[in-house]
Amino acid sequence: MQGRLSLVPFRGLRFDRAKVGDPAAVISPPYDMIDPIQAHRLALSGTHNVVRLTLPELDEPDPRLKYRRAARTLREWREEGALVLDPLPALYVYEQTGPAGHQRGLIGALELPADDAGPVLPHEDVVDGVVADRQALMHATGANPEPILLTYEGGGPASDLVEQYAGGCEPLVEAATADGTHHRLWSITDPRELAVIARDLAPRRSLIADGHHRYAAYQRLAALGRPGSDRGLALLVDSKRHALRVRGIHRWIPDLPVAAAIAAAAEFFTVTPVSGGYRAALDELDRIGPERVAMAAVDRQRAWIIADPKPELVAESIPGDRPESWRLLDATVLHLALARTVWKVPDTADHIRFDHDARNAVIEAQRHHGLAVLLRPVAEATVLDLAAAGVRMPRKSTAFAPKPATGLVLRLLDAD
């Protein structure tokens, strides 16, 4: 039986503008959306940029000490008054408007369900090392520094309150970031309004759109029994009011001889050269119907469409006890059939790397003497169907957008 979906009010830990100045100088994208150059630029943009918490290796290169450094940074910021706890527990209305889209939702402390059959549905596999990293960071700091992103089919009173606050109330925080996105935050503390939200959300279920590794880290922390770890920071967005966009996440494989890889792929797939580099390859992928398996391989300015695997390859390399929609996902075929079986590349995070930006994937592949593989977005209906069936897609199969900024509100485990 499905448990209840519960987003609990909490005392938010927020930056004090009187101490830190422009809020845009202290917020950042999610930790896994930042490349090293951007991370250092954000760290230099302000002494209190939250990236120093989410990526503590910027200030402490010794991996044995980086979590301790994050804890010290958080403690120092609180002691100097840069981060201050709000006086009352609240749910926070968050709005972002910019190039990635427009959305509004509720930030709160998500009650963690007992299992994945409940009201929170994961849909992707995770990498153990990344989960362990996020768990260690949250354990050391005693905090959830950034929210995961959940989407649900709403249209009820909770969504009405979100629109009401965003439409006519003075925000707690406003920030305009360099990417052209405008962020605003409000707090809901009225017990009657909070009760309305709780009743509306209780029978619903949600999909993890972004933050599978952080969610898995929440679960591991909860298993340790630390006070306050039975909840995790989350942004909940009503997809009926604010539909998220789904994008593909690209791969690059280091140290893969390109000519041999393309020749090997041609034995089991239809391989078609494309003129015009990665942009032309992406355009060509867009023209291929969703009923076909297809991906693009790119080496500098050379590109190929790799499509339509032979049935015997699929039967040999991909488990037959999964739904057909999972077995013929582009990412499934890439990881299990093309990479592991044809190219003999292990399906690990070290051997298959990820990048949300196609151009960056091509550049990294070139730098590391390998090949970029560009993927199409997965239809949201497919994501929902597989999640409801309890079937996990390959890691990094989807990129929902827009993603919430980090640093507008943090949560201390022991301060709810």
Automatic annotation (TrEMBL):
<dbReference type="InterPro" id="IPR008323">
    <property type="entry name" value="UCP033563"/>
</dbReference>
<dbReference type="Pfam" id="PF06245">
    <property type="entry name" value="DUF1015"/>
</dbReference>
<protein>
    <submittedName>
        <fullName>DUF1015 domain-containing protein</fullName>
    </submittedName>
</protein>
